[in-house]
Design goal:
Number of strands: 10
Order of helices and strands: EEEHEEHEHHHEHEHEE
CATH topology of one domain: Rossmann fold
Strand order of the largest sheet: 6-7-8-3-9-10
Number of helices: 7
Helix content: 25-40%
Strand content: 25-35%
Radius of gyration: 18 Å
Structural class: alpha/beta
């Protein structure tokens, strides 16, 4: 599904060139669930932006589902993001004045939205929040807000879900509720899930861990026995 070959990304700050990615090669198969780990400044967020077609490589190749996207213009990249990729953010990015249902509907407003409400409600039901559809973000817990964010990412039926620190703002119980959903989407629906995280315990729930440092992949290993999340948070090892 995803193939990166010797990808670099260099940012220019005045006369200074700052290398964020330095020769990254990575393959992701359809239906995988993997995590990308690394300390601050390791390049993991830049890699996520490239994978999500939010940024383009300075050099190297990026092939997504058989199409080379690393050299496409902004309009084509936006089209690919809209059709193939769902994004989940650490800070939820919900509009506070809209209900959960209206927030999930937003990605459908720019296309054929005749069945937008039905599809949005269906997405909320996939994350267990159909009964909270009429509530605004301030009336929802942090975990529920993130579930709305996941529903919004799912509403256009993407083939890839990119989650950037999806549990970073959540307590242990809510974190595990999110992991339950992500594992179920991967296991039962075959959705390809890529999680950026700095937490080893979160990565242990994926099937593969890609570790980065200084803009390079330094380790790429399968997880022998991925942990199965429980919505009650049992087995959580983070110190919260």
């Amino acid at each position: 599904m995803i193939e990166l070959e010797n990808v670099t990304k260099v940012y220019r700050m005045g006369r200074v060139q700052v290398p964020a990615l330095q020769g990254v090669s990575l393959s992701v198969q359809q239906g995988e669930m993997l995590s990308i780990m690394g300390p601050s400044g390791s390049g993991k967020s830049t890699l996520m932006n490239v994978l999500g077609c939010l940024d383009v490589p300075t050099s190297g190749r990026y092939v997504l589902q058989g199409a080379e996207v690393g050299r496409l213009g902004d309009d084509r990249l936006a089209e690919i993001r809209n059709r193939k990729i769902g994004f989940v953010f650490q800070t939820y990015n919900l509009l506070p004045r809209l209900t959960a249902l209206a927030n999930v509907e937003l990605p459908l407003l720019y296309g054929n939205g005749h069945d937008a409400r039905k599809r949005a409600l269906g997405a909320l039901e996939r994350v267990g929040l159909g009964h909270r559809a009429r509530h605004r973000p301030a009336e929802l817990s942090g975990g529920e807000q993130q579930r709305v964010g996941i529903a919004r990412a799912l509403v256009k039926n993407p083939s890839i879900l990119l989650a950037d620190e999806p549990t970073g703002n959540l307590d242990s119980r809510s974190s595990y509720e999110i992991l339950v959903i992500l594992q179920r989407l991967n296991r039962e629906e075959g959705l390809t899930v890529v999680i950026v995280t700095h937490e080893a315990d979160i990565a242990a729930h994926t099937k593969r861990v890609v570790s980065m440092r200084d803009g390079r992949v330094v380790r790429d290993e399968p997880v022998k026995e991925p942990r199965q999340a429980a919505s009650d948070g049992q087995g959580m090892e983070r110190g919260q």
